[in-house]
Amino acid sequence: MANKIALGTTREATQPDCIQALVVEFIATFLFVFAGVGSAMAADKLSGDALVGLFVVAVAHALVVAVMISAGHISGGHLNPAVTLALLVGGHITVVRSVLYWIDQLVASAAASYLLYYLSGGLATPVHTLASGVGYAQGVIWEIVLTFSLLFAVYATMVDPKKGALAGHGPTLVGFVVGANILAGGAFSAASMNPARSFGPALVAGNWTDHWVYWVGPLIGGGLAGFIYEHFFIDRTHVLIPRDEEN
Q: Which residue windows are transmembrane per the record (predicted)?
């Protein structure tokens, strides 16, 4: 079967399974961002030690990613436009459903961030920006590499039909990668790996400094990981393209 991105149709938006998936994806992404951003706000409030704060944020993200991927199994638990793009490139989700997921993820992130702002009594919402001395090119490359690492892990432990003994452990292992990547890149590029995770706080704070980096880097890294894994490590015969997308 030729490698082919499935376009899908607008009818998908009204199908019960798609609606259910969008509801689950919204809830899972909302709870992910709520815990992730909330941990960053708590670290800023309670700790004056940057290293302790980074560790707290990394652990919180690792835990919530692992749980929400598992809890969001109906939608696939993407939580991240870069994950959706990587699966789109691999033929695992249609273009139409991908767009719906992206909108869903951004709205969920904004809702979680606004709720945190309210519940914290107007506490400043930490936004992803490049560290002092880190240029745009460096920031983009950081995000490409970190997101590539994340999506390579997603494919290897969850998507690949030959994952074998890793079956069932994918969400936990992906959470580990997220935590490790935040520890590695948090002090430099903020280690977003997720445009939606960066979008909500930026919207609430009204601070779009360096924001484009957190779209360009993760989307390139995610798309590249999906393309490489599908072309070099997976037998494409397992990917089912909807009949109305064939030919």
A: 19-43, 50-71, 83-103, 115-134, 140-159, 171-192, 212-233
